[in-house]
Write a structure and sequence with these properties.
globular
């Protein structure tokens, strides 16, 4: 009898407990970066490996092309579910503006950081979306990202500020290295046989260059005139250039044509990394903005 009564009480307890509202488990706040460079900056600033408050995600991943990226429902959901959205904000990311404008109340309290707006007062000219390659402007961006992380997660503000100070120190060293190299090569012309995403970077530090197409991206199936190819070939001869330059994902065909039009068939072709095809697996394996830009700098060697 006592056993039956105890069993009845046990069943009643289970029934009542199942009807009680369950306590919500705390979930990590979602931070979403649009491209690998911004992801890398943010993971350093939030100390991603040890952070238990924030979860970082990337929109354009797996080496997909930034300038020709076509978003789908997965990307739209990422943006709409973000607690903090960080993006470049140039013409190549107009689609992000569209998603935000079409879903203004997608997530109450969502923070949005459009980094190109940080430089809107620099001059009357429109800021080139490739400003992310400038260590000087990278420091401004990282400070903004850190400030937004502090807004999102104020209880870890001290940690974010400390990480930002350390990372900006690395960017300052990179900035100084570019300044020194620009002085060493001030009388040299770099021959770019490709599109030119590093235009803002080169102009900021005073590197002289000529490019087959001085913008990025180049038009689809871009092919310069034959006379332009010959002119660049003559430029190799006139400057005694030991190398011409292309960017990642180049098939090097234009570079080969330019070299063939010169008198130096042994002229080298060096490849700058614009990080547009950087993958998460590469980031996790050790590639990052600092060491990639340091490697790019080593390619800017004197003739």
């Amino acid at each position: 009898m006592r056993i039956g009564f105890a069993f009845t009480l046990f069943l009643a307890f289970l029934l009542l407990s199942s009807c009680m509202p369950k306590k919500k488990t705390s979930s990590r706040l979602k931070v979403v970066a649009s491209v690998p460079v911004l992801y890398d900056w943010t993971r350093n600033l939030m100390n991603e490996r040890e952070n238990t408050r924030l979860f970082l995600n990337l929109i354009v991943k797996n080496g997909l092309q930034y300038h020709s990226f076509t978003p789908g429902i997965t990307e739209e959901n990422l943006i709409n579910s973000a607690d903090l959205l960080i993006y470049v904000g140039g013409p190549s990311e107009q689609w992000i503006d569209d998603i935000i404008n079409n879903n203004p109340s997608a997530k109450n309290g969502r923070l949005v950081l459009k980094l190109i707006d940080c430089f809107s007062d620099d001059s009357s000219e429109t800021t080139d979306e490739h400003f992310i390659f400038s260590p000087v402007k990278a420091k401004v961006c990282c400070q903004e990202i850190s400030d937004y992380l502090c807004k999102l997660d104020p209880q870890n503000e001290a940690s974010y500020k400390e990480s930002c100070s350390k990372y900006k120190g690395l960017l300052s060293i990179l900035d100084n290295s570019f300044q020194i190299q620009a002085q060493k090569t001030q009388n040299q012309d770099f021959i770019i046989c490709d599109r030119m995403p590093f235009g803002p970077l080169f102009k900021e530090y005073g590197f002289n260059y000529v490019a087959l197409y001085d913008k990025c991206p180049a038009p689809e199936k871009f092919q310069p005139k034959t006379e332009t190819i010959k002119e660049f070939g003559r430029k190799i001869d006139q400057t005694n250039a030991c190398a011409v330059y292309v960017f990642d994902n180049s098939d090097k065909k234009l570079a080969k044509q330019v070299i063939a039009a010169s008198k130096n068939p042994k002229c080298d072709t060096l490849v700058f990394d614009s990080m547009e095809s950087l993958t998460l697996s590469q980031l996790f394996s050790g590639k990052n903005y600092i060491n990639i830009m340091q490697n790019n700098l080593t390619l800017l060697r004197p003739n």
